[in-house]
């Protein structure tokens, strides 16, 4: 019986692939979607203010408090603004870097450049953020020590420091998808654009950018989503500034249902973002 089943699967490669992917897919559904479902359900619970126990009773009070309190609205808008800023900064730096790697650098150098882009990912997250803390420290940091005499001073701890730190952390996640998209871009298109009289910026805007747009979207999904859920960077170099992740972290052990309510905001924002991306058709071109 086992031999006949094995022979049948060997003759049907599509069925064999589906069978191999069944277990990982099931685990993904149970572990990821199940956790999101539990998170959403917990957000509708409440907590006993005397005992601190979670009361499994349907309640919209957490959402009401979140939507009516201006402090939480400010945190949402601040986190969204930081995520957008980090994504735009990463794209601004990643496009020329990826273009140099894919179209200008020699083939032997491309592998070295890719390795150099990946190298920061091997270092510890905390090590990199504490390194930025030492550089951004007001008056005594590396930036003030090196450039203070030139009138260039550290922005200190706060929103700009968070944006700088997160842009550095997530930049490789933007470079690599764009590099992969540019590598597939035929050089003949660039040559044809130049032969027809198009200048460099016009070629970039009308030829390169539309073709690498799916790769740009893929990179933005990493930078945008990772920034929405980050809280460690804000704790280390954010000063008194808080992001959504910090609010979730602070309420997790005190008021789990409210922490779950706050945690649904990044999930909802990413769902809306993915829906908008799908409307552009970029995901189908990846």
Strand order of the largest sheet: 1-2
Bulk shape: globular
Which oligomeric form is depicted?
single chain
Mean pLDDT: 82
The SSE string, one letter per element, is HHEEHHHHHHHHHHH
Q: Count structural domains.
A: 1
Radius of gyration: 24 Å
The CATH architecture assignment turns out to be: Orthogonal Bundle
- At CATH level 3, the topology is MetI-like fold
Strand content: under 5%
Please work out how many helical segments DSSP would assign: 13
Extended strand count:
2
- The secondary structure category is mainly alpha
Largest sheet: 2 strands, antiparallel
Residue windows where pLDDT falls under 50 for at least 5 positions: 1-6
* Helix content class: over 70%
Question: Would you state the CATH class?
Answer: Mainly Alpha
CATH superfamily: MetI-like
N-end to C-end Cα span: 41 Å
Secondary structure layout:
Elements: H1 2-11, H2 13-42, E1 46-47, E2 54-55, H3 61-68, H4 70-104, H5 107-122, H6 125-136, H7 142-147, H8 159-183, H9 187-195, H10 200-229, H11 232-237, H12 244-252, H13 256-280
Antiparallel strand pairs: 1-2
Descriptive tags:
disordered N terminus; 13 helices; MetI-like fold; two-stranded antiparallel ribbon; mainly alpha; 77% helix; 286 residues
Plain-language structure description:
The protein is mostly helical. The protein has 13 helices and two strands. It has helices at 2-11, 13-42, 61-68, 70-104, 107-122, 125-136, 142-147, 159-183, 187-195, 200-229, 232-237, 244-252, 256-280, and strands at residues 46-47, 54-55. It has a two-stranded antiparallel ribbon. The chain is globular, with a radius of gyration of 24 Å. Residues 1-6 have low confidence and may be disordered.
């Amino acid at each position: 019986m086992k031999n006949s089943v094995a022979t049948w699967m060997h003759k049907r490669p599509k069925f064999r692939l589906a069978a191999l992917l069944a277990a990982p897919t099931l685990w993904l559904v149970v572990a990821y979607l199940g956790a999101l479902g539990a998170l959403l359900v917990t957000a509708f619970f409440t907590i006993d203010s005397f005992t601190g126990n979670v009361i499994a009773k349907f309640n919209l009070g957490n959402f009401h408090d979140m939507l009516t309190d201006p402090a939480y609205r400010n945190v949402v808008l601040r986190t969204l603004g930081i995520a957008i800023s980090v994504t735009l900064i990463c794209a601004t730096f990643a496009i020329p870097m990826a273009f140099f790697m894919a179209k200008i650098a020699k083939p032997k150098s491309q592998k070295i450049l890719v390795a150099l882009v990946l190298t920061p990912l091997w270092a510890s997250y905390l090590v990199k953020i504490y390194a930025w803390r030492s550089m951004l420290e007001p008056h005594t940091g590396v930036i003030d020590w090196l450039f203070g005499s030139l009138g260039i001073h550290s922005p200190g701890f706060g929103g700009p420091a968070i944006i700088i730190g997160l842009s550095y952390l997530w930049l490789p996640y933007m470079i690599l998808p764009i590099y992969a998209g540019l590598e597939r871009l035929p050089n003949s298109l660039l040559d044809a654009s130049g032969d027809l009289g198009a200048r460099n910026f016009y070629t970039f805007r009308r030829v390169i950018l539309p073709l690498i747009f799916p790769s740009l979207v893929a990179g933005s999904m990493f930078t945008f989503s990772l920034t929405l859920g980050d809280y460690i960077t804000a704790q280390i170099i954010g000063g008194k500034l808080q992001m959504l992740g910090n609010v979730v972290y602070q309420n997790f052990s005190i008021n789990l249902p409210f922490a779950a309510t706050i945690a649904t905001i990044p999930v909802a924002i990413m769902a809306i973002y993915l829906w908008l991306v799908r409307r552009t058709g970029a995901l189908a071109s990846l």
